[in-house]
Amino acid sequence: MTVQSSPLAVVALACAALSAAIIVGYLILRPPLGPSSRIWLLFGLGVFPIGVAFAGNIQGFEATKERQFCGSCHVMIPHASDSNSITSVSLSSRHARNKLFGNENCYSCHADYGMFGTIVTKLGGMRHVWLYYTEYRNVPIEEAKTTIHLLKPYPNDNCMQCHSTEGKLWLEVPDHKASLGDVRQGRVSCASAGCHGYAHPNFRPPGEAPAEPAVHPAPTDSSKTDAGSAP
Amino acid sequence: MKPPPPTSRLVLVSCVLTLAAVGLMVWSLLDPRPVPVVAAMSIGQGLGTASLGAFLYAVGADLRSRYVRARAERESARPRPP
Known about the structure:
The structure holds two protein chains of two kinds. Chain A has helices at about 5-30, 35-65, 65-70, 75-85, 90-95, 105-110, 115-135, 140-145, 155-160, 170, 175-180, 180-185, 220-225.
């Protein structure tokens, strides 16, 4: 989401401009602290900055959901580039082409499910930022491809936010039917080599050698295949 | 040169802090990467809150000093008993 396309960002920028204008005007003119200057300053130091913070916070939280934000750390570039690719057949890219995920596919898939999922996810994101600046900032991308891994196994619950495992189409797949209990209990990962493959071509669990990406054939009609329902 | 009264200095500090806070927030809007966003939501908001607090304190102190001064003037203008 760019500044131009977001009304909140425009509101925040307008509030910032008004606040700055009032403050600069006060600093230049330096009027005595009378009733009128107090009112002006209340707007310049209180009302408008609160407007900037309010609109800016919402805009900031929305920005953190975008793939461009995730890819702004260089070690995430391979993952983000793969998601961006219209020719990739990886799970992440296929989901990125789904209009329900779109540009927020990183967040949609990695956000924890549940009542406090958003908060837990944001706290996890803070941890990522900390680790990036303390450990991974100078790691070359090629090295990062093999050294960066998830803290804990990817939970099937995140897949099941959309793929409920209750749908008729989903249950008609023999492998789904056979592993239903294991999938629901998280004993078998949906995004594993034996099932749908790893979500990112470069990703492998620790200790597993890199292998060829993509286990799915390329979709022939993306509008039907990728924007379809999630049984 | 006469030094500015404490309340004016406090308002001055408040103005500078607000400009810094708003600058950080605008930076995060124009360049939404992890560092600007985290800085805006932590340092920026901290500075903004501190500046508003400083301004409100300065206004309160100014009003109080005016009230005290006015009361003293009223009392001094009141005719003293013989």
